[in-house]
């Protein structure tokens, strides 16, 4: 069904279509219903849902969708003359979400999306499409749930050259790590509990292996540094190897363990290089990120004039995500929209990835070794030969199971590559009962 | 001197004039110089200083101002045809700052200001002037230094009905309280040290008595709740009565003491009422505000969909403040400007102040009493008669000085007015050697 309507103006309602009516889609409808009056006041005009599309029309979502036009084929939303903005809440980096997004922007309609995977993979193409069509492309909900951190970087820190952007970008991992910390339970048990409580997906790989955080980091880096989104070059390691013993050890040393995504631009003789990494880190108590518990997200941006800024809040959930989607819609209704990545797509630079081996770092290294004489000498000799200087070393008492003993250490500050080199010297050693775990210590 | 120039467009430079060249004014010039290229890219056009005004033309400010036109009379800036936006960094709620602001907006020029006192007192009038002239009025730097919290409330949480806005809004007080906490030193000594280090003004009254925080709170409340700025009805108490012994006592109970500004709207049978208060509070360790140290500021906004959001960063200083001023200028250059208080001035509601006496609260009460028999019975009887239920009570050992003994207690949750009533029963008692100190406990 297609209806004709007058061209949108700045006082006529902003007419939206929603594709995808999962918890977030239903949340957006509930929010627009609940806060309708206040939104119309702040936006300067009402925001009205006119059409929706999802897999199953009949499903009970707790909100009345019978009042909206229905499209079986979601891309039909992009062709409706009575729609100004399409809200894409389908998910997936490609497929129907991408097709709908291209069609919507191609038709000159605004696009609001919560789809971090799609923006991480196709953000540049979509931004150029949007700019060519003079249409809005907004994705506040793609990073940090309800935290206005895309806006924070795009507009709040816009006068700054950022030196660094980093943070806790995945609520599932943070829930797992902070629960392990609080309860002493093991990874697998906490993951199962998180799945039961809805804090982790049935297939948790994207979260616990760091891919979801990497999507978000790539988006933040692009906005923060004016670079093309470069998800492919994010170095990612997840939290699956972190044991409760590591968390206890870190605690004894004054640290917590958090999955941190961090990005910066390094000036090298060959020109600027972009470093993007997601990995579990030791975070000193006293650092603002050490106090971030549960499914909360937090992003730190360090600007050359602003200093360190922290944005923190619920990283997921239908309410917070709907709040971010609706904030984007209000911006569009207010006509406060510009380049999706802060500078026009054509001007985003393509930076090669940085090689961080020379960077100074303190590192936590944990070995699981055979409980036999000479092992400690073997480890320390390798570290010496790799030029790694040990600040503190803790050997746990005899293990209960299978003669396995944990040896944990913290290095003095030294080039990152030295740890890699030292561990290479130990490769193949039959003293090691597991791959050593290397966790950098986040600078204060 | 007046020059003529073409009407500003969205690609021509945004031409600004700066009134006031103290550390912040000089910081803005330094920022616009240092980050010029990046700002032009993000703003879509250059931002150029064309004219300045200050008290002393010859003073060395570390930046070259000879390249700019000079006006002895700062209100002349508002009359220059070659100026699009006036940046007011003079300070003071009235006088020259207000005259310049009125003249600039009256002439249809944008106004960017860091002047919290002026916005707290005259924000509504200036917003209406700006809206009538279709000119920008922006004041990100007025609250929270470099933290984009005005933007956070105006745009980031725009889809939410806020239930509460609160935070640490004065860096001087937070520096003093967190230093007292860390060192055990007394208020007067830490204040003197803060003055020596530049964290406190020579005349610190505005800061330590809570007035500065009240200015900021009134601005946040207006944006968060869509109300007319109502500084006159902020209930203010400062930190001058807080002793190091209170901080130690709070620490023993698991709390820190912070000066908190908080605002909410209460629905009463007589209609909505606005509550705004600034006062030292006990903040439980584990609350995000408890970890805010030194001159840092932090604001929490709780939305009905977003949940709790935290914005944190440097609350003052030339770099952070310049960052906020320049972010406002970039917004204006991008033409991303709307109602200064999020909704048009004519629609901001005038809410009567709320009476909080019935609200449930837990409270810390500290008495300094004569060291003689029966005093504890006198205190506890008054609390019983006021219907205050005591959760824990600590009587310090004998005092070194003058037979003064400290008795500190934490109440169970009960109506706020009961504590007031109980203390009224003790008024005039010669057992009390100082006015009792009442510090509410911030809910988690």
TrEMBL record, chains A, B:
Protein's pathway: Amino-acid biosynthesis; L-methionine biosynthesis via de novo pathway; L-homoserine from L-aspartate: step 3/3; Amino-acid biosynthesis; L-threonine biosynthesis; L-threonine from L-aspartate: step 3/5
An example Gene Ontology biological process: methionine biosynthetic process
A Gene Ontology molecular function term of the record: homoserine dehydrogenase activity
Coiled coil: none
Catalytic residues (UniProt): 216
Annotated L-homoserine binding sites: 201
Transmembrane regions listed in the UniProt entry: none
Keyword rRNA processing assigned: no
Assigned keywords, A-Z: Amino-acid biosynthesis, Methionine biosynthesis, NADP, Oxidoreductase, Threonine biosynthesis
Keyword Flavoprotein listed: no
Positions contributing to NADP(+) binding: 19-26
EC number: 1.1.1.3
Highest rank taxon of the organism: Bacteria
Chain positions recorded as NADPH binding sites: 116
Domain (ACT) ranges: 364-444
Entry-linked NCBIfam families: PRK06349.1
Family in the record: Belongs to the homoserine dehydrogenase family.
PANTHER family found in the cross-reference section: HOMOSERINE DEHYDROGENASE (PTHR43331:SF1)
Protein name: Homoserine dehydrogenase
